[in-house]
Amino acid sequence: MTISPALATPRPSGFFAKAYSAFGVLLLLELFAQFYFIAAAVIPIAAPLTVAFPPDYASYNTFSALHGLNGTLLIPATILILILLSFTARHPWKTTLFTALILLLLILQFALALIGFQHSELAPIVGLHGLNALLIVGIALRLTWQRWAF
Questions:
Q1: Based on C-alpha coordinates, what's the Rg of the chain?
Q2: Which of 8, 17, 47, 118 could form a disulfide with 12 if both were Cys (CB 3.0 to 4.6 A apart)?
Q3: Residue 102 CB contacts under 8 Å (≥ 6 apart), including other chains
Q4: Is the CB of residue 44 less than 8 Å from the CB of residue 50?
Q5: Full pLDDT tens readout for the chain, 150 residues
Q6: pTM of the entire predicted model
Q7: What does each C-alpha distance from 139 to 117, 136, 142 come to in angstroms?
Q8: Would you give the end-to-end CA distance of the chain in angstroms?
Q9: Which of 101, 149, 103 is nearest to 93 (CA)?
């Protein structure tokens, strides 16, 4: 009986490998927060702030702004830190390339959002924004699960 090479090779277990895992979990939390912000902006019952604000789209504006800030500031910064940590943790190149792929998909995500704001007639193309988001979450889940170092 032979052991799979993936099971036979030890995982990196130093400080940087653990930091990569921690930032991977942070990235997943930020990505799932994006889905919550969308739901809270669109579905009034999901937003706890609708009780405090009158129903004049204040809740929609608040959560869509949180969605934009999280997607343009926090998530890219976390991904850049993950790329640096994948180098310092001496993860395999496959891990570093998949982490960089998340950054490229995030740039595509930003471009799709800009197209959606500027050209409402391109709605079918902008629908790829949601599919791309699911792809980003899937790759982030795979990387975090694969490189779990705790």
A1: 18
A2: 17
A3: 79, 82, 136, 139, 140, 143
A4: yes
A5: 566 555 555 555 789 989 999 999 999 999 999 999 988 887 766 555 555 555 556 677 888 889 999 999 999 999 999 999 999 988 888 989 999 999 999 999 999 999 888 887 888 888 899 999 999 999 999 988 876 654
A6: 0.80
A7: 26, 5, 5
A8: 29
A9: 101
Please answer whether residues 139 and 102 qualify as being in contact, where contact means their C-beta atoms are separated by less than 8 angstroms.
yes
Contact call for residues 149 and 11 (beta carbons, < 8 A): yes
Burial class (CB in 10 A: 0-12, 13-18, 19+), 20: buried
Which residue reads 């942070």 in tokens?
26
DSSP letters, 88-102, are HTT--HHHHHHHHHH
Neighbours of 38 (CB within 10 A): 17
